[in-house]
Amino acid sequence: MRKLGRFVIDTHVHSQRHAAGSHLKDKKKETGKKGDFDYIDLESQMAAITTFDNSPRLLYDMDCYGVDMCILQCAFGMNNDLNLELVEKYPDKFRAMAFAKTTMDAILAGEKEWDMKDAIEELDALLATGKFCAIGEGAPAIPESAVNALRHSYSMSERMDELRLVMDLARKYKVPVTMHTGGPGGYPITHSRWPENWHPYWIMDLAAEYPDVNIVFSHGGMQGGYNTDVFKQCLVVTSNFNNVYLETGLYWTDLYYEALRYPNVGPEKLVWGTDWGASIPTQTRIGQYPQSFGMQVHNQGIIRHQCDVMGWSLKQIERLDISQDDMNLILGGNALNIFNIEFPLTRMFKGLPNVGRIKEK
Ligand SMILES: [Zn+2]
Prior knowledge:
With about 350 residues, the chain is an alpha/beta fold. It has a single domain (about 10-325), classed as Alpha-Beta Barrel (TIM Barrel), CATH 3.20.20. It has helices spanning about 20-30, 40-45, 55-65, 80-90, 100-110, 115-130, 145-150, 155-175, 195-200, 205-210, 230-240, 255-260, 310-320, 325-340; strands spanning about 10-15, 15-20, 50-55, 70, 95, 175-180, 215-220, 245, 270, 280-285, 290-295. Strands 6-7-8-9 form a four-stranded parallel beta sheet. The protein has a three-stranded parallel beta sheet with strand order 1-4-5. Helix 6 (about 115-130) packs parallel to helix 8 (about 155-175). Zinc ion (ZN) binds next to loops. Zinc ion binds near residues 12, 14, 73 and 278.
């Protein structure tokens, strides 16, 4: 596959992998569980499993598919330190988002109750180092296993007030905020953990209250499966506000076209991101629409290999019959602009006069 754009950035990458095998074996002994663990078991354990650096596989795929840079994100117990090590080792290849890992660990260990203020305090210290380009993955939220123990569902105003604290912090450091949307099918994402995940329309108020803060919908409403209702809501919000962007997640070709033709969306509002490393396998259903899509399917069991999501996703984009200048925005230009990343030249990306200029914080 030829390189698809002038500068290609995958804005959603997990470079850490969970060493789940031995942990799950111990759990099996402890609980007396028969048979294989499934995605739901795995999700409940992931935050407690040690992660390791998976960058050799990531660098292989980047080289294979002509991906210049990746924005590293933490999820499920992944830690900021490993991501920063990569950023420091390969400054022209990686950037990292800030994640409130210590707060999450304390909640899981039963040392703390959930309080957004703790997460904000931790993120404040991380962003003050100047080493992070955004807040993510998603806005801080109670870990899923703690939600179940809490047996509490958020009211809209309760969660919106928490999200306003995140937006205040993003404004202070002039960084974008990611809001998680969609679900992979296997790991459950409940309303109580991330209500905004299932209610993208809530983000309208934040976009209006903070017009100077950029918001990126992680996965753009499509993290798995082929039901498009969350995607369609994300599209409406993105269309209504200049400061809201769609990460293209697991979009198949026609979803790109739908976003490209939607008024006020278009190539200026799309940023490519795959969720590389998230263990979401690609499903092929010949003759069905869409013929291939990402999803964790319970009866297939947990995926063991490094699913090739970059290759699949770039093939969906390669099929787009649009100008190369538009492709360049989706594949990297918009991300350079939103995440405030340096670029050696000006005037290489349509309508983005700030890309390539010296950055001021
Ligand atoms: Zn992710």
